[in-house]
Specification:
About 35% of the residues lie in helices and about 20% in strands. The protein is elongated and about 85 Å long.
Length: about 350
């Protein structure tokens, strides 16, 4: 038999490894020869169990599965591949059957393509090239996503400061794998000052995460602007003015003086800050100001308020109150009620 039977002893450099599963040895001989002559590395097996073992132990780029195998048909084998941890492997079903129902069953099993016997070498190779090109693009995108996830995770303040006379916590649950939301905190114990920052970059995915990382870098000079929330927003705007393309940023910055209870806040098109009192009353700090986008005039307004002992400051992004259950929107009023009813909880529990 041409190709490699069950045991693949290391991928030949530069040659994509393709699994061929068929209990017809003559068919395996034919497809193995087609693939070898065109620079692929075929791994040929005659049953579904050996196919699953090969996938488990080897780097398989694509699978050609015959439908009519005896121990496990191609549909079941395809389902097991797609339900396992190698589900990204493209699958082409190969069969002598030509009915519409067989094609539908292949699609329902998760196969990306379908080829009828007798095999035409030109068609087989064209379909393989197409699916490997798509897989390559998907692999590159997944690598970019993984890189962006690691960057995003590194941006967040996992080691929250221990604040004398206060506590802080955050929860981060992105709508997609990667989002553009970002939070940060700055605490100066010598002066009893705290800075709170939250932003939301438009869109989702790699570009939003990368812009959030640029926002983080712009906060390297936060101490210089700590007492001026609007000044910090302007610094961020100037730092990113030509770097965010068609994206925009909403943000909110707060400066707290723990000794006097004075808080100053400025918002760039961001939802208002909620202040929850000890009695469960809810107030808002809503400063005027535009989003951070290109050369739009900001017009940020700093709002000052005096906090009472036990007051809570809650910053959030629109993903919280825009969450839906069916057609029902969670809404700002419900969020305010939830914050008010949770006054006995710690910040982390809330």
């Amino acid at each position: 038999m041409r190709g490699h039977e069950v045991e693949a002893r290391g991928k030949i450099f530069g040659r994509p490894r393709i699994l061929c599963a068929d209990d017809d040895l003559e068919s395996l001989e034919v497809i193995g020869g087609i693939l070898e002559r065109r620079g692929y590395e075929p791994v040929c097996v005659s049953n579904g169990h050996d196919a699953l073992d090969v996938i488990k132990r080897n780097d398989i780029e694509l699978a050609l599965l015959d439908v009519m195998m005896h121990d496990m048909d191609g549909y079941e084998l395809c389902r097991r591949i797609k339900n396992g941890n190698r589900k990204a492997i493209p699958v082409i079903m190969v069969t002598g059957l030509r009915s519409k129902e067989d094609r539908v069953r292949s699609i329902e099993a998760g196969a990306e393509d379908f080829i009828s016997k007798p095999l035409d070498a030109t068609e087989v190779l064209a379909r393989i090239r197409m699916l490997l090109s798509i897989k390559s693009l998907n692999d590159e995108r997944e690598m970019e996503m993984d890189f962006a996830r690691k960057i995003q995770h590194s941006l967040l303040p996992w080691d929250m400061p221990v604040i004398r006379g206060g506590r802080a916590a955050f929860t981060y649950v992105p709508l997609s794998d990667i989002g553009g939301d970002f939070v940060d905190i700055l605490y100066l114990p010598d002066t009893g000052e705290v800075g709170l920052f939250i932003c939301d970059v438009s869109g989702h995915g790699v570009s939003s995460a990368m812009i959030a990382s640029m926002v983080k870098m712009s906060l390297s000079s936060w101490r210089e602007h700590l007492a001026s929330p609007a000044g910090l927003l302007e610094h961020i705007r100037r730092s990113l003015i030509d770097k965010i393309g068609d994206n925009y940023i909403t943000a909110c910055v707060c400066h707290l003086d723990l000794g006097s209870g004075r808080m100053r806040a400025a918002c760039a098109g961001h939802p208002p800050v909620f202040i929850a009192g000890k009695a469960g009353d809810i107030g808002e700090v809503r400063g005027r100001g535009n989003i951070i986008y290109g050369h739009i005039a900001p017009g940020w307004e700093e709002v000052e308020t005096i906090l009472a002992p036990g007051d809570r400051i809650v910053l959030y992004t629109d993903g919280v109150f825009e969450a839906r259950k069916g057609r029902e929107l969670f809404g700002l009023d419900r969020l305010a009620g939830l914050i008010g009813s949770g006054r006995a909880k710690t910040p982390g529990e809330l």
